[in-house]
Amino acid sequence: MPMSIYTELADYIDQIYENPYRIPHDESRPFVKIFRRLLSEEDVKAAMKLDDHGITAVEFASKTGFSQVKAEKILDRLVKKGISFATYKKDVTFYQLAPFCSGILDFLLKDGLDAEIAQYIQDYVDEINEFINRPERKKTAVRSVPINVSVSAVPYHASFNEVLSYIEKGSIYSVSDCLCRSAKEKLGRGCGHTIKDICIQIGPYAEFYIRTGRGRPISRQEVIEVLKKSEAEGLFHEIVKPQNNESSYFVCSCCTCCCIAARTVIPGVVSRIESTSIYIAQVDADKCTGCCGCIDSCPVSAIDMETSRIAINPSRCIGCGICTFFCTSQAVSIIKKG
Ligand code: SF4
Ligand code: SF4
Ligand code: SF4
Question: How many domains in the chain?
C-alpha cells in the first residue's frame, strides 16, 4: 500500500523523537488511524513543518509561506487537536511537534477521546507490548515511586522527598482527568478507580494544560492532597518525564488495570521487562505469620508463598508499597535496591 500523508507524519514523529519502538508505519497502525480520524491534509502538512524545537507563529509563517494570521490559526488548531505542544514565554507562544507518548496520546483527552479513539489506544498498548518483548527493546522512561505512608525501612521523609523532589521541580501545577481510565471507560471496561482530577502535571506541561483547558491550576498543597487521596485508594504513583521538555513531569496515580505506562512496563501484567523502580519490597521473616494477606494486594503478582515462606519476586516488584497496607503484622517494608 502506498504511503499516505498520515503514515508519513507518524514516521516523521518517530524519527524526530527517536522512538525506540520504531518500525515503519502503515495504515493498520493505531496512530495512523488516529491521525486519519482527527487531522485534515492541511493539519498534517503543517505538523510536518514542526519539530522538537519550539518556533513562533512568525517563524512558522516564514517557513511555510502562510500569512501570520493563517499561521496562528493553523498552529492553534494543532494545539487544540493535541498534535502540537506549546510553551509560553512572556507574550510569545512557541509551538513544537508533540511526541506520541507522553504527548499526543495524553492530549487526546480533552476533545479527541471517543470509543473509536479509545480502541486505537488499547491497540497501541498491544503494539508497544509486542515491540518491547523484542530482544532489541530499550528501557522505559517511566518509574514507579512507593506510596508515601507505607515506607518504613526507607525513612518516611526519604519516600516523601522522593515524590516531593519532583513536585519541587516546578512552580506551576495542574490536575487533569486520567486518560487511561477514561479510555477504558469509553469502551465499557472502566475499573472504578478515580478518573476525575487525578493526573498531576508539573512545569511547562502544567501551563500548557491550563492554557488549553486540559487541566486546571492547583497549588502545591493540593497536589499533595491529590496524591494522598490516590494512595488511600491503593493507586501507585508514576513519574513520567515527557520526551520533549526537560523541566516537565507528570505525576500519575495509576492502576495496573488501565494505566498505559503500567501495562507496558510492569512485568507479569502484560509483558515481561525489568522493573525500573529503585524500590523493592522486603519481608521480615521473623514478623511474617504466613497469613498470605499480602499476596492478592500486589498489583503485579510479585508475592508468592514458596515452601511456607512469603517471597517477593525481585524482577516483578515495582516497589509501589501497596502490600505494606495489607500486612497487619508490619512484616513488609520498602527498601531502596542495593
Ligand atoms: S498514567 Fe496513570 S494516572 Fe496517568 S493517565 Fe494513565 S492511568 Fe491515569
Ligand atoms: S510486592 Fe507488589 S505490592 Fe509490594 S511493593 Fe512490590 S509490587 Fe508493590
Ligand atoms: S500479610 Fe504480612 S504477615 Fe501475612 S504473609 Fe504477607 S508479609 Fe507475612
Answer: 3
Average pLDDT of the chain, as a whole number? 81
Does ligand 3 lie within 6 Å of residue 291's CB atom?
A: yes
Residue of 152, 332, 334 to mutate, ligand 3, most atoms within 8 A of C-beta:
332
Containing H/E element for 134? none
Residue 177, amino acid: D
Position in ligand 2 atom list of the atom nearest CA 279: 5
Inter-helix orientation angle 68-81/57-64, to 10°: 110
Q: What is the model's pLDDT at position 37?
A: 94
The preferred substitution site among 128, 189, 258, 265 for testing ligand 1, maximizing ligand atoms within 8 Å of CB, is 258
Mean of pLDDT values over 239-255: 74
88, 196: one domain: no
Q: Which of 98, 124, 158 is the last residue of a domain?
A: 98
User: Given the CA of residue 283, which atom of ligand 3 is nearest to it?
Assistant: 7
Which listed ligand is nearest to 301 at the C-alpha?
2
Q: Is there a single domain that holds both residue 255 and residue 145?
A: yes
**Peptide bond just before 102 cis, omega within 30 deg:** yes
* H or E element at residue 19: none
Residues 15 and 67 in one domain: yes
Task: Give the residue-averaged pLDDT of 67-78.
Answer: 96
Of the three residues 216, 233, 265, the one that is the final residue of a domain is: 265
Instruction: Output the CA 300–ligand 2 centroid distance in Å.
Output: 7
Q: Is residue 116 part of a domain?
A: no
Q: Structural domain of residue 64, as residue ranges? A: 5-98
Q: Is the pLDDT of residue 50 over 70?
A: yes
C-beta of 298 in contact with ligand 3 (< 6 A): no
Ligand 3: distance of its center to the CA of 191 in Å? 26
Whole-angstrom CA distances from 321 to 66, 85, 297 are 54, 34, 10
| Tens-digit pLDDT profile for residues 77-133 | 999 999 999 999 988 999 999 988 778 888 988 777 899 999 999 898 888 777 665
In a domain, 114, yes or no: no
Ligand 2 pocket check for 321: Cβ under 6 Å = yes
**Residues 43, 86: one domain?**
yes
Q: Which residues are registered as beta bridge partners of 238?
A: 144, 252
Q: Rounded distance, CA 248 to CA 240, Å?
A: 9
